[in-house]
Amino acid sequence: MTRMRIALVAAAAAASLALAGCAGDGGGEAEESAEPAASFEAGTTMAELQEAGEITIGTKFDQPLFGLVGPSGEPEGFDVEIGKIIASELGIDEGNITWTETVSANREPFIEGGQVDLVVATYTINDERKKVISFAGPYYMAGQSILVLADNEDITSEDDLVGQPVCSVTGSTPAANLKELGAEVLETDTYSNCLEPLRSGKVVAVSTDNVILAGLAAQNEGEFKVVGEPFTEEPYGIGVQLDDTDFRMFINDVLEKAYEDGRYEEAWNSTAGTVLPFVEPPAVDRY
Ligand code: GLU
């Protein structure tokens, strides 16, 4: 169920109490079911969600390893697991999470409009986006890279993309970076929709975050390869409504707790970790 929420008033005043309410709970076990209910300050997003007993989370539906709707009909991946951990800390079971597809271009509008309560979707934290939404995290550090056909020997770094047709996604940081680099950018709505133009030779490469490309390469074994070194930093954050500081700080607490008690690593190992190595998470930024 989609929930619309009214804007929070005097959110900052409630922050410390709300945080105190959630910090010490839970048994430290890596588990899928909801944590014992914490008590949250009335009027906070946490209290509203806990009372509703349900949450709507925006994620990707076509990105293997991070957010992919498979045969089960439910999205699977590292971002999905991060979303489940947050829900669990609000006392919300997996079954009461409504997953909404957020493609790169509609993430800010969906947060601003209240179609989703939060977004976990390979979502780079940057100043431009922070003008309209707020970010918890980062919880992972990715970097932009390049995907080419497996037999391509011509493209080995971003310098080889200058003046070349390259596919990326509207509203993403990689699309903007490619334009700055001087590539001829073919924009579509999702990264999976970049694969056909790559196969047909309409573009010479697909460029986005290394971990997204690794997922696409693993999904289509033998067809594609990731080349070069990552050439940007893409710190992944969790998008919430602008200035919902209580909720942002709560999610930061949840992340730190999950780093400590093993749930973050378990989430990684069961998803992206099947293809990519585990790296220690970056420190959260409590800006
Ligand atoms: N992390 C980049 C971004 O948020 C690229 C991945 C994506 O589009 O989801 O724009």
Automatic annotation (TrEMBL):
PANTHER family documented for this protein: ABC TRANSPORTER GLUTAMINE-BINDING PROTEIN GLNH, AMINO ACID ABC TRANSPORTER PERMEASE
Protein name: Glutamate ABC transporter substrate-binding protein
PROSITE patterns: PROKAR_LIPOPROTEIN, SBP_BACTERIAL_3
CDD domains registered for this protein in UniProt: PBP2_GluB
Superkingdom of this protein's organism: Bacteria
Domain Solute-binding protein family 3/N-terminal: 54-272
Similarity comment: family membership: Belongs to the bacterial solute-binding protein 3 family.
Species, as recorded: Agromyces salentinus
InterPro entries: Bact_solute-bind_prot3, SBP_3_CS, Solute-binding_3/MltF_N
Residues spanning the signal sequence: 1-20
UniProt keyword list: Signal, Transport
